[in-house]
Protein: FAD-binding oxidoreductase
Organism: Meridianimarinicoccus marinus
Amino acid sequence: MTDISPAARQLLDRLNRTLPKAAFRPLGPAYLEEPRGLYTGHACAVVAPDTVEGVAEVVRAASDLSVPVVPYGGGTGLVGGQVMADGPAPLLLSLERMTAIRSLDVPSGVLVAEAGAILQDVQDAARDAGLLFPLSLAAQGSCRIGGNLATNAGGVNVLRYGNARDLCLGLEAVLPDGSIWHGLKALRKDNTGYDLRNLLIGSEGTLGVITAASLRLFPRPRAEATAIFAVPDPLAALKVLALARAEVGESISAFELMSHEGLDFLTETMPQVRQPFDVPPEWSVLVELGFTGPGDPEEALATIFEAAFERDLVSDGRIALSDGQRAEFWTLRESIPEANKKIGAISSHDVSVPLSALPDFIARGNKVIAGLGPFRVNCFGHLGDGNLHYNVFPPKGHARGEFDDRKGAIMRAVHDLVHECDGSVSAEHGIGRLKVEDLQRYGDSARLAALRAIKRALDPRGIMNPGAVLAAE
Amino acid sequence: MTDISPAARQLLDRLNRTLPKAAFRPLGPAYLEEPRGLYTGHACAVVAPDTVEGVAEVVRAASDLSVPVVPYGGGTGLVGGQVMADGPAPLLLSLERMTAIRSLDVPSGVLVAEAGAILQDVQDAARDAGLLFPLSLAAQGSCRIGGNLATNAGGVNVLRYGNARDLCLGLEAVLPDGSIWHGLKALRKDNTGYDLRNLLIGSEGTLGVITAASLRLFPRPRAEATAIFAVPDPLAALKVLALARAEVGESISAFELMSHEGLDFLTETMPQVRQPFDVPPEWSVLVELGFTGPGDPEEALATIFEAAFERDLVSDGRIALSDGQRAEFWTLRESIPEANKKIGAISSHDVSVPLSALPDFIARGNKVIAGLGPFRVNCFGHLGDGNLHYNVFPPKGHARGEFDDRKGAIMRAVHDLVHECDGSVSAEHGIGRLKVEDLQRYGDSARLAALRAIKRALDPRGIMNPGAVLAAE
């Protein structure tokens, strides 16, 4: 039974008077869980206003009464930013009833979506207008665009189009005092004062609540082609990337690394997923090209393969011959996290390093992990961005539960190495509650002091998602 | 004679003890002027440390003694951000002795430059490594990269590559308390806390001093082609842009609008600049394509021209047949600001509007100006970004001095219209001191309160470039 504080009772009384009945949602368990099962949250209630004014009323009331507020999108975050387990039970502020695509301006290439819009619905609306909204990630069927922005989501197309931050031109948001920022600009250039937009993006609900966003749309590639190449090692993979860049420049939409281990996990847990090679290669890369101009991307893939083969950078390869096969290649890549889940990671790491440091990082990481025990490593991810999911698993025949006591040491060893390589211990998932200590440990101290000062300045009562990103003060 | 406050004297005494002699620069008049002659600043001294530690020592000392500091780059800013005319004489902190290219990592596509590096030198270093640093603007021979970042500079390649903000991966900076943020990351993805980088970028020296930056490099286009098309009106120009996008997608490097008036100004003041058409067309666009992949950009330009001609969107056109002619086209475009200067604008406006609102903005603007008097308008700029330089001139045979009393009314009328069109009154030049009142007038009140709170939080003594962006408190 959640303990509801007197302040929270007062808040609910006030909101019962000011919000419509429909804004109150049953507090089902889904609101208090997160995908990796690391946290179980609590809450005094879930409210879901359907207007920005409703959201402002909630935040104003919570601010008046100093009740914590946890903004809630699709609930798909992987670092516990959406669940608060400690302290007085917060109010969950869900954006699920603000799902409208408010406008779509084709000549300007701008779509305005409310924060609760499902990512896939935003993609579909863009496609229906003949354009592309390129943010694309595994959870796109259930994550919401407000959450994508609050966490600066990444995904498979960052290499070409950037992360959520790069796709956003303007925001409507409720600030921690309940004021509404009407900032839905549709401008490519606007140098009028400090960049509040990028400050809210990636702040994981700790500096305000995003209620709507104007988003950049792109021309759809006319022709796309996808291939999987077997490569001897990550350095060769990077050299293939350089070859591809020299051949087609910015037309590389995705360049994803897969390891032998990942393909083995698929064979073991999801044999229905078709694999392109009879024997899983040590390493492989999924390359996707999209041409908006002239030329044939399939031919370009063949040219890249030949150039790489001559230089011993690839040993085998498959270019998809149909849209069905392209989809199959992507299913392979996108099933890896599911296979990981079935095997059960002891510790997962979402890291990035400079491209030039990447092969060394992987080699040293594997040595470090081998020094800790007979663990298996599945290292895969967005190679073109230097973003690896470096996940550590128990030896075959063992369950992760047997190694709970090693989890901390493994994570620490991987993150120490990332830090040595001048990398990031959270490339795309954010800090949430999972990595608050990592941010303290590895973050620059002048920067951390500035972040704390900003938090205190914008949220002096500390009501917005307390305990996420920065330790509650 | 500048009046030096007792605090400033104390500061100079302290710096004389702690900084090397070479860090003190003679206070020549160039430091106190700005390109448009709108302000004359004052200063108690100019110091130019050659290390980040030296910059930190200066800021720490200034903070201890509450002496204002004005960071100084190339001095090319157009809104008076680099000159302080009011209040006690500040210390000018010049980055002119921090000009090193610290590193260039080709596989990662990252160059680290100190803040005082001249933009052109950064471009050249990238080119020498076979890569492209795409920031490009008229002042590139004298502006410094730190100033470009502090003002989030734009220029002619924003359409394709983004503005200075989009080209920066990490910063080294001295914060207003004199602490050093070592943030020279070379990562494409890094979601570890609030976006301090983008907060400093565009803050015009009011939140800290950028001392170095890691910058993104791009593949150089293999083949480039440039054309000038005569178009009947801005709406047709936008339709040509849409056609070009459909034909070559993201390969459009620049799409610049020029008006009849601008070409007339060139004929009048710079007859040596070669013009492509015997009779200057009412409107024209300079289109540049750069292909990193297959295809011939000249052919693509011809295809675009034909498609546009069939639809009556262009009446005439010239595709450059040599690199010399390409350079000539760019000279034409880039001489327009010089011609403007010779004619003498009563009021210049650096504005942006959503692309779909742009033709209406120009039509309404011309009516508004006609209602104010027999003025001439030269409207030109970065059409593809919705960024127009909408500049108002005296009637032929008159000097701008005759209309000094109309300047305020003209600017107000143009900016009111921009605001109605949901645009920005400073697309690429920033707020500086020139547009502080505009920001107050047109800015969202919740956002402005947040910006002030951020300024107070990071610079509680108000020493960093006081009076720029936000009125001094």
